[in-house]
Write a structure and sequence with these properties.
- This protein has about 280 residues and is mainly alpha-helical.
- It has one domain.
- Helices cover about 70% and strands about 5% of the residues.
- It has a two-stranded antiparallel ribbon.
- Helix 2 packs antiparallel against helix 3, helix 4 runs antiparallel to helix 5 and helix 7 packs across helix 9.
Length: about 280
């Protein structure tokens, strides 16, 4: 979320923002919890978030004046989670095949345009959006389909979002030293440390769903805490480049869908590979 590692607020406006955020959380959390235990609701939420996230990402680029293939990107991006949900794989390395096909289609579409300026930027940013939003977010589906997938996915959400909450609370109260002002002037070093601590505490809180020894829980908390903050900073960098505050204004107090899932876009693939490669669990 865009509030991660935040700094000192501005009184009344901060309280209003926090109130809106709490109301939004009270609506979102029950839906997410229900989706964890219901396949079809889970698939619907993932698909909706993917499409909305892609739309917000490509809209940001349009505002910056980049000529992209918006609806092609959204359509191609929607195929990724659907193919994983229904386990449709043309080949074992279907993801690489998909990327190659997407690049070929984008190149052919560029041939039809009357001007050549911005061709490289248009093709690369469209492909990047598909990978950044759709492919990264689709790792949530891959985690859900693992043995103990509900436990793994629940742990991922708790650890990642507790890191968001910790960064916001500690940063708002104690934030004095700016983290990277040119990217996000409100994020602080104190908030970043607070986020890491809350992520580690979240890992221990999930010990029932994540049966690992203590040192492993600390490592998981730290790894996901760092990945989540990198995900949030990455989106902040993009928004800074596009000169906007939030990716959209659809969720009161939180911004857009992309603002909610930004940290998960990095923690989901990291956690999946940690589970399947380091822990060798599948």
């Amino acid at each position: 979320m865009s509030s991660r590692a935040g700094g000192a607020g501005s009184g009344l406006s901060d309280k209003t923002m926090l109130t809106k955020r709490l109301y939004s959380t009270l609506i979102i959390v029950p839906v997410v919890v229900a989706a964890l235990f219901n396949y079809w609701l889970f698939y619907a939420v993932i698909f909706a978030f993917t499409v909305c996230g892609l739309y917000e990402f490509f809209t940001m680029l349009e505002r910056k004046g980049i000529s992209i293939y918006k609806y092609f990107g959204i359509g191609m991006g929607a195929v990724i989670p659907l193919s994983i949900m229904f386990r449709f794989e043309l080949t074992k390395k279907w993801e690489l095949l998909f990327i190659v096909c997407a690049l070929l289609f984008l190149t052919i579409m560029q041939f039809k345009r009357r001007q050549n300026s911005g061709a490289i930027v248009g093709i690369s940013t469209t492909l990047f959006g598909i990978l950044y939003v759709s492919w990264f977010f689709s790792f949530l589906v891959k985690i859900r389909l693992l043995d103990n997938g509900i436990g793994f996915l629940g742990s991922l959400l708790v650890i990642t979002k507790l890191g968001d909450v910790g960064a916001y609370l500690i940063g708002s109260r104690f934030g004095k030293h700016r983290l990277i002002p040119r990217i996000s002037p409100h994020k602080s070093i104190e908030g970043a440390v607070g986020g890491l601590v809350f992520s580690v505490l979240g890992a221990f809180a999930c010990q029932g769903m994540l049966p690992l020894p203590g040192w492993h829980l600390v490592l998981v908390g730290l790894v996901l805490g760092v990945a989540g903050q990198l995900g949030d900073l990455s989106e902040s960098l993009m928004k800074r480049d596009c000169e906007i505050k939030d990716s959209a204004e659809v969720i009161p107090g939180m911004g857009g869908v992309l603002d909610i899932i930004d940290s998960l876009l990095f923690t989901a693939p990291v956690f999946y590979f940690y589970i399947t490669i380091v822990l060798n669990l599948s």
